[in-house]
Structure formats: C-alpha cells, structure tokens
Amino acid sequence: MEALIVGAERAFAERGFHGASIGYICQCAGRTTGAFYSNYDSKLKLFLDVFRRHSDRTADYIDERIAEMDTGRDLAPQLAGTFAEIFNGEHLDARWVFIHLEFRLMALRDCDAASALVEHEKRFSRRIGTMLDALFDRAGHQPALRGTEMAALLGAMTRGIKLDRGIYAVGGVDDPLSTDQVAMALEGLFRSVA
C-alpha cells in the first residue's frame, strides 16, 4: 500500500487528480491495477491517503518541535520559527502546491471531495490545536484564540504563502516576503493571541 501512496503522490503532482489514471498511478508505483483495487475502491480514497500521509508528516514535525519548546522563555519567537520553517521548508514543496490546489478545486465542484477535505482539515486542525493548547497550558497562558482556531488560521496562511511562492517561482519573480519577514509576522500573531 505504501508504494501505491508514493506512486500516487507523484502521479497526482504531475497530472492532477483527473489526469492521473489508475493505470498511470500503478505505473508510478510499480504495481498492478489489481493491487490498486485490492486496497482502494476509488481514486478519491487513495488521494485522501496521499493527503493524510503528508499532513501526518507535517503534524509529527510540529509535535516534535513543540515538545522541545522552553515554556520558561517567550513562546512567540519559538512558535514563529517553527511555522516559518514549515512555510519555507520541504514540508510544503512545489509538488504540494499542486496537490493542495487540486484538492481545493475538486472540493468546490464535488460534494464528496468537499466533505472529505473538510473532515481532513478538521482532523488536522484538532491535532495541531491540541498541541498548541497543551503548550500554552504548560506555559500558564490563556490565549485569545483556541488552538484549533490558531491551527486553521496558520493552515490558511501556509496555503496562501506557498501558492504565491509557487507562482512567483514559475514567473521568475523574487518572493516579496523573506523567511525573516514571515517569521516576524508570525511572531506578532503569536504574541497577540497569547
């Protein structure tokens, strides 16, 4: 099943959801179509697994970083640094700009995809929100926003920044926001809510 997910990630990034046939996904995965049908009853379910796998890796990274944070120090720059790395790092490379955008466009046109995306994002925001709430509890802070609200806001910011950066890169234009500027803005956000 792991090979199918890896192959599907490549196929979806290259050809999009509708352009990546099950045959092409299996070719990218080095598996037969029988392997697909023995694990999945729809391409959407495989797409969701690809999406979940990536989100889980990102959430695991955030969890590790939050666990290392020193609650005796100012949390705002520590959190800003972690999330700025996500905005700029390998967690959301150019391939993921396409996959995220593809899913969002599908969701605007397809009720099943919309329901699946909403459930996925709620799950992800709850997971990140729980981490943030626990961190603020350990530090003795009562933030103005709940963790899930902060997570939803950070998710929207991440998607927007990565989409813009992808467009600038294709257009050969320098990104108007440096990593340091993004970190500074995030530090202000975390300081204001905490």
Automatic annotation (TrEMBL):
SUPFAM superfamilies: Homeodomain-like. Residues 21-40 bind DNA. The keyword DNA-binding applies. GO terms for molecular function: DNA-binding transcription factor activity; transcription cis-regulatory region binding. InterPro entries: Homeodomain-like_sf, HTH-type_TetR-like_transc_reg, HTH_TetR. The keyword DNA-binding applies. It comes from the Bacteria. PANTHER family: HTH-TYPE TRANSCRIPTIONAL REGULATOR RUTR, TRANSCRIPTIONAL REGULATORY PROTEIN. This is HTH tetR-type domain-containing protein. It comes from Streptomyces malaysiensis.
